[in-house]
Amino acid sequence: MNILLSHLVNRRRLAYLFLDKDNNLISSGGDLTYYGLGTLGTGESVEDRLAFVQDGMFRENETVFFEYVSLGDNLYANVLSSVTPNGICVILLDVTNQARRIQSMQQSGNELFLCREQLIETKKLLQQALLTIRDSKPDDKI
């Protein structure tokens, strides 16, 4: 268990926040500075810092998982939130590298799609040009 926790803290930049029902910080830990939350103080609302935490968003005994949440300039996290009788627990795990890889693949896919569309359009133009050339060629009559 300690190895898993060490991996999550070191490689995935684990951070956690425990909030009261009004989304004010009760306690926190992990790599909060990485997520721009290092200066967040006990009793302070997190709604201004984390857009996905809004009043009434989470229901009692509900666990919600958000994938690839953008937290700022090229910073992405998977977010797990769980409501308990005592408050809301929010866990952040860095997925910035994975998000960049996915964005790169999506961009490549979009570019390939556009190239395919351009090739189809070029093929149509060439077919029209060939038909025009055939139609304008005089018949060879003897």
Helix content: 25-40%
Please give the largest β-sheet. Answer: 5 strands, antiparallel
List the total number of helices. 2
Strand content: 25-35%
Q: What is the residue-averaged pLDDT?
A: 85
Give the CATH architecture of the largest domain.
Answer: 2-Layer Sandwich
How would you classify the helix and strand content by structural class? alpha+beta
CATH class of the largest domain: Alpha Beta
Helix and strand string, N-terminal first? Answer: HEEEEEH
Evaluate the radius of gyration: 27 Å
For the biggest β-sheet, the strand order reads 2-1-5-4-3
Give a topology summary:
Blueprint: H1 2-10, E1 15-19, E2 25-30, E3 63-70, E4 76-84, E5 87-94, H2 96-136
Antiparallel strand pairs: 1-2, 1-5, 3-4, 4-5
Observed structural traits:
5-stranded antiparallel beta sheet; 5 strands; elongated; 142 residues; Beta-Lactamase; alpha+beta
Structure commentary:
This protein is an alpha+beta fold and 142 residues long. It folds into 2 domains: 2-94, Beta-Lactamase (2-Layer Sandwich); 97-137. 35% of the residues lie in helices and 25% in strands. It contains 2 helices and 5 strands, in the order αβββββα. It has helices spanning 2-10, 96-136; strands at residues 15-19, 25-30, 63-70, 76-84, 87-94. Strands 2-1-5-4-3 form a 5-stranded antiparallel β-sheet. Strand 4 (76-84) and strand 5 form a beta hairpin. The protein is elongated.
